[in-house]
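Is glyceraldehyde-3-phosphate placement plausible here? Inputs below.
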Amino acid sequence: MRKTVLAGNWKMYKTQAEALEFLKGFVSHLEDTPDERDVILCVPYTALGSLSKNLHGGRVRLGAQNVHWEDCGAFTGEISAPMLTELGVDYVVVGHSERREYFGETDETVNRRLKAAQAGGLTPILCVGETKAQRDAGETEAHIFSQLEQDLVDVDQSKLIIAYEPIWAIGTGDTCDAAEANRVIGLIRSKLSNPDVPIQYGGSVKPTNVDEIMAQPEIDGALVGGASLEPESFARIVNYKA
Ligand SMILES: O=C[C@H](O)COP(=O)(O)O
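Reply from A.M.:
I modeled the complex. Tokens:
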């Protein structure tokens, strides 16, 4: 039985005070959220500590947005799994397209980060997806299969979440057609050794399209950027109508 996982990725938004304000507004909407839906907030490092102390009994779980492959060392600007787990973090986004595009993340470093996350007790959310140019050239499948093949070397698929995020749909309002997202996610699943890995869709998920997206049989959740920044909006996504 695959888990349903709804995760907000705040990216570089919200100070600590703003994060706490969000949480106050958000948790009041979770009373009727079905227990089998995992709700995760992947927030800036600076907000992890105070959110962790205010999570109200664990209905909301915490995620970070990156993790280094070493536990400690001379790696200015990086953060390690022990530093995150000490703060009560359970999940971490790895290989987001913004990391790959702007910060030189490669499939090799993604693989190292995935393994370190798991060794350190974190469940990674691995992001894969194609650019518009790759889609137009008919290279979507080949690109994603290549990412999976390299990123997942020696990665434990019993402690893994994957997010299919077509890059052209991120932050653009140009959502991937739900049936097409379902098709690609089915293909991703066909490449995994563990069919129970939850696979999310990400890319302009909103309160207005989440019901259709979540109705697709292969889609196990959503990784939500912009629409996770407002409590009511993310609550509507988490409380999608099945
Ligand atoms: O990690 C989240 C994705 O990049 C999606 O962002 P978005 O919902 O703002 O399109």
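Short version: Residues 9, 96, 165, 170-171, 202-205, 223-227 surround glyceraldehyde-3-phosphate (CB under 6 Å).
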